[in-house]
């Protein structure tokens, strides 16, 4: 596990951008999985103009790692955010974007394996310790890509339903820990003091299913990129 700690969110984002762009420039097919949300917004602001209209990056393919379907919406939450935050501003061709969904999740791991596997994955970490759609209470470390029922038995249920309201689905899909351990290079980003406590628990505490992201420290090629605030409680 390699730590890169930058002074600010902007510097953290620049470093992550350079790392991702370096993966892209290759004379073979490159398969990347990237996250949506708040943490990567600056990365995509920097990265989009670097990749737009660059024919030499036509070898880069992008894969989503989870999907939350939204009732009465044509696309799920993750696909919508990835398109809005990066794919549309960067002009990524439809043929180079690939989305996991309730329709294809059972074959998704094999589809990725057939094209050489994922070269890198950019992921974030939730304040509750989740990563991708691997949530406290509903995650088993042996899971490959799987479907999660949205049930009141889980600690995250109320938050998800409150956030999505009437659009909340009955289930969602995510690449599981076993799928993600196959990725050649994991890049974990986090910023802000509100992430400091979970970063410490996940990366310095024991591996614990109650903190799903704690499994990530067992990955053989994990790079953690933090700003000073997110790293403030680390030893």
TrEMBL record:
Residue ranges constituting the Glucosamine/galactosamine-6-phosphate isomerase domain according to the UniProt record: 20-217
Protein name as catalogued: Glucosamine-6-phosphate deaminase
Keyword Ion transport: no
Stored InterPro entries: Glc/Gal-6P_isomerase, GlcN6P_deaminase-like, Glucosamine6P_isomerase, NagB/RpiA_transferase-like
Pfam families: Glucosamine_iso
GO MF annotations, alphabetized: glucosamine-6-phosphate deaminase activity
GO biological process: carbohydrate metabolic process; N-acetylglucosamine metabolic process
Annotated keywords: Carbohydrate metabolism
Native source species: Carnobacterium divergens (Lactobacillus divergens)
């Amino acid at each position: 596990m390699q730590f890169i700690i930058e002074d600010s969110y902007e510097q953290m984002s620049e470093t992550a951008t350079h790392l991702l762009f370096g993966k892209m420039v290759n004379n073979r097919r490159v398969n990347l999985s990237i996250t949506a949300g708040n943490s990567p917004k600056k990365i995509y602001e920097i990265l989009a103009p670097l990749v737009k209209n660059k024919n030499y990056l036509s070898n880069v393919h992008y894969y989503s790692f989870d999907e939350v379907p939204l009732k009465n919406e044509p696309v799920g939450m993750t696909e919508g955010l990835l398109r809005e935050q990066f794919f549309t501003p960067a002009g990524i061709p439809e043929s180079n974007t690939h989305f996991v969904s309730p329709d294809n999740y059972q074959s998704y791991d094999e589809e990725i394996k057939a094209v050489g596997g994922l070269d890198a994955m950019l992921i974030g970490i939730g304040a509750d310790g989740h990563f991708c759609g691997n949530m406290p209470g509903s995650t088993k470390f042996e899971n490959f890509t799987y479907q999660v029922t949205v049930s009141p038995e889980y600690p995250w249920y109320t938050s998800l339903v409150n956030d999505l309201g009437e659009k909340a689905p009955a289930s969602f899909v995510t690449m599981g820990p076993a799928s993600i351990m196959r990725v050649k290079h994991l890049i974990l980003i986090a910023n802000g003091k509100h992430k400091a406590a979970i970063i410490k628990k996940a990366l310095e505490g024991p591996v614990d299913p109650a903190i799903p992201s704690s499994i990530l420290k067992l990955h053989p090629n994990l790079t953690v990129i933090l700003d000073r605030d997110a790293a403030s409680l680390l030893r």
